[in-house]
Inverse folding.
């Protein structure tokens, strides 16, 4: 009799758990769309400005992602000796400078399609979006990775 009751309770618990909302998986496309919408709203970009701006913005992030990936690869395994550690540190420093160089280059390109005040607003909006998003993920609202 106890086994039947325990089995029934286990089945009911499984049904209750499976009836809950499935956890959302992280979608890079959705994240990008939300980011672009947030920037458009916060920086008050017109549709024409957004059409000119976001291809450059995506291009900048694509180039930055390459440098970030290289930095990530450098940090995965600690080199075996001092000279390799030194080379790894120097390579990381070069990549960080490259990131800033990419950012500076694209900020100048942004100034060619938007006013300086709107570029400033875009930069601030991007920072606010990331802070808000990471704060929400830290509160248990973080979607699962695929």
């Amino acid at each position: 009799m106890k086994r039947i009751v325990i089995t029934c309770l286990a089945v009911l618990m499984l049904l209750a758990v499976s009836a809950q909302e499935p956890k959302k998986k992280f979608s890079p496309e959705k994240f990008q769309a939300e980011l672009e919408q947030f920037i458009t709203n916060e920086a008050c970009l017109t549709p024409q400005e957004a059409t000119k701006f976001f291809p450059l913005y995506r291009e900048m992030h694509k180039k930055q992602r390459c440098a970030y990936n290289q930095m990530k690869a450098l940090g995965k395994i600690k080199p075996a000796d001092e000279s390799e550690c030194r080379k790894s540190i120097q390579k990381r420093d070069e990549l960080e400078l490259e990131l800033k160089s990419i950012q500076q280059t694209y900020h100048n390109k942004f100034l060619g399609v938007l006013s300086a005040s709107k570029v400033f607003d875009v930069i601030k909006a991007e920072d606010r979006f990331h802070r808000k998003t990471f704060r929400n993920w830290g509160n248990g609202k973080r979607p699962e990775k695929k």
The chain has a mean pLDDT of 84. The first helix runs from residue 2 to 19.
